[in-house]
Amino acid sequence: MSYRKRRLKIGIVGCGAIGGGIARYISKELKKDCQLTGLYDIQYGRVEKLRRELSAGPIGRNSLTALLKSCDLMIEAVNANSTREIVREAFLHKRNVIAMSVGKLLDAQDLFDLARRRGCRLLIPSGAIAGIDAIKSASIARIRKINLTTRKPLNGFANNPYLTRKGIDLAAIKKETVLFKGNVDSAIKFFPQNINVAATIAIASQAKDKITVCIMTSPKYKNNSHEIEIVGDFGRIVTRTDNVVSPENPRTSYLAILSGMQTLKQFCQGTGIGT
Question: Per UniProt, where does NAD(+) bind (predicted)?
Fold first, then answer.
């Protein structure tokens, strides 16, 4: 990362809990380092609502192309089926990207290759977990196993199609219950709104086949928590984060939003702390 004398122009795709949170942070805390020059969401009402809240000028964009023309760095915060194409389009426009929807980037080596060819940076925040720096270091040696246990309140799984197909009635759950146990690919497929952290771990460790994901819920759970155990030639790492949920979206941890903010701050200020 290099220090920039001019303010970096930032465009945000997705004006929900994460995109909105980062936009507010830019307007309040990063004015010296960057400026918000574009907002885009397929629900344009979200754009206008956020723009008015920020007392911003005409930064609402009516297309992804218009947003990319207005910025140096795009923050992707949509977690949609189109995420990969959104990121791809940004690289084709030679824009740097902070990608929040990591689950959509699993097995996307073509995007990583495209970023290199176009001279772009693809930044993936740590998200709602701790220990990504250590996992990256551990990946240089041999990793034998990784266990990820995610615990979330019942309302974090509302309207989940996989649970509906399995006949799991969330309202009937009265005690701690395992909703899923399996590999990363299946976890992300069945819980795309809940388990971005599994993709982050897979990308950081380069050991996707060594990861077991367990997803649990209970009426007693009030926060989102992620517990990680990694065993390898380096020794053993155990981390646990007990996250406050975003007040705007119970599926999102507040720490995930803060992680996006910190990633942007470090990029704008030309600093990098940790592995």
Answer: 128, 196
